[in-house]
Specification:
This protein is α+β, with helices and mostly antiparallel strands. It contains eight helices and eight strands, in the order H-E-E-E-E-E-E-E-H-H-H-H-E-H-H-H. Among the domains are: 12-63, no CATH class; 67-168, 2-Layer Sandwich (Tetrahydropterin Synthase, Chain A), CATH 3.30.479.30. 56% of the residues lie in helices and 21% in strands. It has a three-stranded antiparallel beta sheet, covered by helices on one side. Strand 2 and strand 3 form a beta hairpin. Helix 7 crosses helix 8 (278-300). It is rod-shaped and about 170 Å long. The mean pLDDT is 80.
């Protein structure tokens, strides 16, 4: 009885042992390759499974989760600039092609790296450096499609490819910074020139408006002076003065206005006038009016021989 019990325990232990047992559990996101007598038999996904002890065996435990491969490659652009490209490719085993992925590729990571490098060497040399920066997403999409088509033949799916860095040499970076700085300075100079032009145009408009207003003011001023002189002449006529006396008084008043303006000017010079006594004032009046009348008579006198 005891011997039979021992035999049963040994048999159960052998049956439940992972190496020789007939029951085994596959974890989530995994796939087990089962071989029978060295030949592929089936693929077992997550759950409880049965195999024949000593005949069936778990040949490989395949991981179905997404993995990432980082590729760092130095290549040359169309404008002969050497850059270092860093690409990250996310891939996984297609659950429908687990056996194909296991039996076809010995080293899938190395194979994927070779495909990514080849795709990058084909894409980057056809673009200038600035275009490579601008079309980084398009490059990543082209690499993903190219590598995905190749790896699908071996049971792998390329989920996503990212170009994480395009790194030129330090000398090229400094040159690019200099170019950008020069372009920005050029734009700043253009903006300053436009601002200066606008300021000049605005100032010119303001000056023109100022001159116009000054002209209008001067015209109004002279018009008021003429009106004042006309009112003065009219008043003197009403007081009984003849035309000659009125003209002499008006001209003398204008002369005095000029003298007053001259004395109030910042560039005024010393003018000595005989105005200490009423007699001297009358003398000044007579001299000024006679001089003005003499000038007017000379201007109206016709030179002999010029009459037709």
């Amino acid at each position: 009885m005891i011997v039979a019990l021992v035999i049963i325990v040994v048999v159960l232990a052998l049956l439940l042992t992972p190496a020789t047992g007939f029951l085994f559990v596959v974890p989530q996101q995994s796939g087990y390759i089962i071989e029978r007598l060295g030949k592929f038999n089936r693929v077992c996904l997550a759950g409880l499974h049965v195999k024949i002890p000593l005949i069936d065996r778990v040949a490989q435990k395949m991981n179905l989760r997404v993995r990432q491969l980082d590729v760092r490659l130095e290549t040359k652009t169309l404008d002969n600039v050497f850059v270092v490209i860093v690409a990250s490719t996310q891939f996984r085993i297609n659950p429908q092609n687990i056996a194909l992925a296991y039996y076809e590729l010995q080293d899938p990571g190395a194979q994927l790296r070779a495909y990514v490098e080849d795709a990058l060497r084909s894409a980057i040399p056809s673009l200038a450096l600035d275009d490579a920066f601008a079309r980084k997403d398009n490059i990543a999409l082209d690499v993903q499609q190219t590598v995905g088509n190749e790896m699908s033949r071996f049971g792998f799916t390329v989920v996503k490819t990212l170009i994480t860095a395009i790194d030129p040499s330090d000398v090229v970076k400094q040159a690019m910074d200099s170019i950008n700085a020069a372009q920005r300075e050029k734009e700043a100079t253009r903006q300053r020139a436009d601002a200066q032009r606008i300021a000049i145009e605005t100032q010119a408009t303001a000056d023109a408006e100022k001159v116009r207003l000054q002209g209008e003011g001067q015209a109004n001023y002279r018009r008021e002076i003429a009106n004042g002189i006309g009112d003065q002449i009219k008043t003197l006529h009403e007081m009984g003065m003849n035309v000659e006396e009125v003209n002499r008084i008006v001209m003398f008043n204008q002369y005095l206005d000029v003298m007053r303006s001259l004395s109030e000017s910042g560039n005024a010079k010393t003018v000595v006038l005989p105005a200490s006594t009423p007699g001297a004032f009358n003398q000044l009046y007579n001299e000024v009016t006679n001089a003005l009348l003499t000038t007017n008579e000379s201007a109206t006198t016709v030179v002999p021989g010029e009459q037709s």
